[in-house]
Amino acid sequence: MNITVVGTGYVGLVTGACFAEMGNSVTCVDTDETKVHQLKEGIIPIYEPGLEAIVRENSKAGRLLFNTSLSQAMQQSALYFIAVGTPPGENGSADLTYVLEVAREIGRNLQDYAVIVNKSTVPVGTAEKVRDAIRAELNARGADIAFDVVSNPEFLKEGAAIDDFMRPDRIIIGVDSDRAREQMAELYHSFSRNHDKLMFMGIRDAELTKYAANAMLATKISFMNEVANLAERMGVDIENVRKGIGSDSRIGYSFIYPGCGYGGSCFPKDVQALIHMGDEFSFDTSILRAVEERNQAQKQRLFEKLQQRFGEDMSGRTIGVWGLAFKPGTDDMREASSVALINRLVVAGAVVRAYDPVAMDEARRWFAPELFERGQIVFCDHQYDALADADAMVLVTEWKPFRQPDFNAMKKLLKHPIIIDGRNQYDPYALKAQGFDYAGIGRDL
Ligand code: UGA
């Protein structure tokens, strides 16, 4: 099939590359000329395991093209994916400026029947807005061309996006026409060969499914964080509680790991957007508000644990930080808990020495340049360098090389043997036996 994907961000690029990998002809469109130029050279602007190889191979085979002009790309295509950004707008609502601009451009250039697919995470009712925008442009040029709008949300996890796309749990398709339904079924046939992964539903149903999935996962995390905070006060080890409840198949083990708060480009934004949708429909989403509030507070827990040990004023203190990205396997810093921690430390007067295996280049952009110039934030080349003469070590992102570190070396490097473990990676009993002052999340034992 001939496919045009508009937007070469995370979702658009993975979508385009994976459809090309399945033998389709794909043109990815982006208005950013530098980005398109780089993509044509096989340079990928994001860190995503496996993506670069797929982009390069399919570009070489001529199945994956990049273009800055949507109207040019539209000459061959009958299937459009809108995968442009929906940044948080006012009051946490998703800003649809880019989505609707793409819709208008499609309307200005459409020549034959086409299916326009919303891949971006967009509020319920957006497909209707996209349809109206296209129709208005067609009317303006007196063109009577049929088209359908479909909602096909993505469920990709950063760091595992290729696998999630190629082997999805389910493919949600919100559709209101047989013609569009047939096209979508044909497109996704090869991803759904062994088990029927396709789930057709109403367009609004599909739009809400996306938000409900992320909000449910965020709720699990915030719930666990709340119980973990309670466990700390009760002298309970949350890890035992986690295993105890996860073994109930109705609860399950996934997404119940307590930590220093969820981050990324999706959970925080989508929970806020769903709260806003509730407001628009005059419905108080009190559970979601609590989820969001708990998460904001949870991002402060690491700082609070340091504060308990060092007091308000941390001038003269150095804190070693392991991990900056919002989770392992990505260089994405959006809503990362490390940002909340480091900003608080800097304000309290501490020096921060940090290391991340992948995200340091990206992370540099998240802090004021003066902080690096003044030496208040130092990014280190090695994880152990970050601990040199530090008063405490904080684990923020659970990258694999941090899982089994050399604790003897750490003890020698640290001025005080303090480990604050934001992801419950270490054994509190073993570390205490080695003389560490250890605090996890929900296991201040
Ligand atoms: C999330 C969803 O998992 C995807 O299904 C969805 O497609 C995507 O958002 C999206 O809407 O685009 P992602 O943001 O890549 O994917 O990250 P996750 O792996 O879900 O992790 C999100 C955050 O939750 C991370 O900060 C992670 O550290 C935290 N987390 C996760 C916990 O604190 N505890 C857990 O048990 C699990």
Automatic annotation (TrEMBL):
It catalyses: UDP-alpha-D-glucose + 2 NAD(+) + H2O = UDP-alpha-D-glucuronate + 2 NADH + 3 H(+). SUPFAM superfamilies: 6-phosphogluconate dehydrogenase C-terminal domain-like (SSF48179), NAD(P)-binding Rossmann-fold domains (SSF51735), UDP-glucose/GDP-mannose dehydrogenase C-terminal domain (SSF52413). Its EC number is 1.1.1.22. Residues 320-428 form the UDP-glucose/GDP-mannose dehydrogenase C-terminal domain. It comes from the Bacteria. Keywords: NAD, Oxidoreductase. Pathway: Nucleotide-sugar biosynthesis; UDP-alpha-D-glucuronate biosynthesis; UDP-alpha-D-glucuronate from UDP-alpha-D-glucose: step 1/1. The keyword NAD applies. InterPro entries: 6-PGluconate_DH-like_C_sf, NAD(P)-bd_dom_sf, UDP-Glc/GDP-Man, UDP-Glc/GDP-Man_DH_C, UDP-Glc/GDP-Man_DH_C_sf, UDP-Glc/GDP-Man_DH_dimer, UDP-Glc/GDP-Man_DH_N, UDPglc_DH_bac. PANTHER family: UDP-GLUCOSE 6-DEHYDROGENASE TUAD. Belongs to the UDP-glucose/GDP-mannose dehydrogenase family. This is UDP-glucose 6-dehydrogenase. The lineage of its organism: Bacteria, Pseudomonadati, Pseudomonadota, Gammaproteobacteria, Oceanospirillales.
